[in-house]
Amino acid sequence: MANAVSVREVFELPVRNVPLRLVLVMVVFFVLGHFGAYTFVRPYLEEVTSATVGFITVVLIVFGTGGAIGNFIGGQTVNKSLRGSFIVGGLIMIAALVMLLTIGTYDFGVIAAMILWGLAFGVVQLSQINMTLSAAPETFEAAMSLNTMAYNTCIALGALIGGLFADHVGVTSVVWFGIVLVALAVILRASTGRRTTPAI
After folding, report:
1. What pTM was computed for the model?
2. Angle between helices 107-135 and 53-77 (to 10 degrees)
3. What is the pLDDT of residues 143-173, one digit of tens each?
């Protein structure tokens, strides 16, 4: 195939492509934060709100519904402002996690926080894929393979790190872990301006 890329070239991409490297770092922060917190939603709700299995099931459905809405909204906004979509989505996710900490003792607070969290996840998820395309349009398939590897690795690492926090500090600390990591992704995106698009 004319556009085939070797394994070596794939791993050299973020070395040569600064915008792609920045995107991958943002993906690492975002995925670690999101999945570090999301993995422990059930134990958090059981401990903080004494939630029943039925309520937790509803909450997860609400999150999924929010995610579908977020994907739809993201599909409308990423073409208008890719950078803005990621930043606003990340800020909404942070706000949702803060809501979980502050009014998450009430059922309505949990529902509101989880639908916002899901919505934000849908927007940020779509944004980071489009950021990868924008950073490496000529080698998108190779760049996405790195994106996927970082994403899947960080799902596992997020759950592992979150588990360590939950075991040694308390399950509430996992939500703070999510807030801090997503904030780092947002700060990096905001501070890099348009550097996630390749120079022509």
Report:
1. 0.90
2. 40
3. 998 999 999 999 999 999 999 999 999 999 9
Confidence of residue 193 (pLDDT cuts 50, 70, 90): low
Contact 197, 86 (CB under 8 A): no
Cα–Cα distance list, 100 to 11, 40, 115, 181 (Å): 38, 12, 11, 16
- Residue tagged 């760049």 (tokens): 143
CA nearest neighbour of 63 among 30, 26, 110, 105 = 110
Tell me if residue 200 falls in helix, strand or coil.
Answer: coil
> What DSSP assignment string belongs to 179-197?
HHHHHHHHHHHHHTTTTTS
| Distance in angstroms (rounded) separating the CA atoms of residues 142 and 45 | 40
Exposure string (b/e) for 44-72, b if CB count within 10 Å is 16 or more? bbbebbebeeebbebbeebbeebbeebbe
